[in-house]
Amino acid sequence: MSLEFVDTNILIYAYDISAGHRHDRAFALIDRLGRQRLGALSVQVLQEFYVTVTRKIAAPITGEVAIERLRMFSRWPVYSPLAHDVISAAELSQRSQISFWDAMIVHGAVQLGCDTLWSEDLNVGQVIDGVKKRSPFAS
């Protein structure tokens, strides 16, 4: 089975207890990916996760708890971009008409060999460079 890349918003919902059904679905997805060792993410996702869950959600978690989550997720395959990856993502952004930050996420998924990207951004079912966008919230 191929790895499945998790975008920041899904990771945040998994730890945002105020997110209702989105929390439940995101947590179940993260739990499954962890148990099956199929989850993948990027340094960008880890950075955005830490800032958001400690400062920007309705019920922020403590820095200590967030750091423990970072340690846990750093055991997953993590994509660490270099300068040439930024250029590749910029080209992907131009070619696919998506934001640069979304292109960095898609590029990371491609580099890790993922065929699935879990996100609430982009369009459900959209395929970019062989990576299919899915949402745990789609009916």
The CATH topology assignment is Rossmann fold
Tell me the radius of gyration. Answer: 14 Å
The count of helical stretches stands at 6
How much of the sequence lies in strands comes to: 5-15%
Order of helices and strands: EHHEHHEHHEEE
Mean pLDDT comes to: 96
What is the class in the CATH system? Alpha Beta
- Write down the oligomeric state: single chain
CATH superfamily: 5'-nuclease
Number of domains: 1
Instruction: Report how far apart the termini are.
Output: 24 Å
Which of globular, elongated, flat, extended, rod-shaped describes the shape? globular
Q: What kind of sheet is the major sheet? A: 6 strands, mixed
Share of residues in helices:
40-55%
Question: Could you characterize the architecture of this molecule?
Answer:
With 139 residues, the protein is α/β, with parallel strands linked by helices. The chain has one domain (4-134): 3-Layer(aba) Sandwich (Rossmann fold). 53% of the residues lie in helices and 13% in strands. The chain has 6 helices and 6 strands; from the N terminus they run βααβααβααβββ. It has helices at residues 8-15, 21-35, 43-55, 63-73, 83-96, 100-111, and strands at 4-6, 39-42, 78-79, 116-118, 127-128, 131-134. It has a 6-stranded mixed β-sheet with strand order 3-2-1-4-6-5. A hairpin with a 2-residue loop joins β5 and β6. α1 (8-15) crosses α2 (21-35), α1 (8-15) runs parallel beside α3 (43-55) and α3 (43-55) runs antiparallel to α4. The longest helix is centred in the first third of the chain and has 15 residues, at 21-35. The protein is globular. The chain starts with a strand and ends in a 5-residue tail after the last strand. The model has no long low-confidence stretch (mean pLDDT 96).
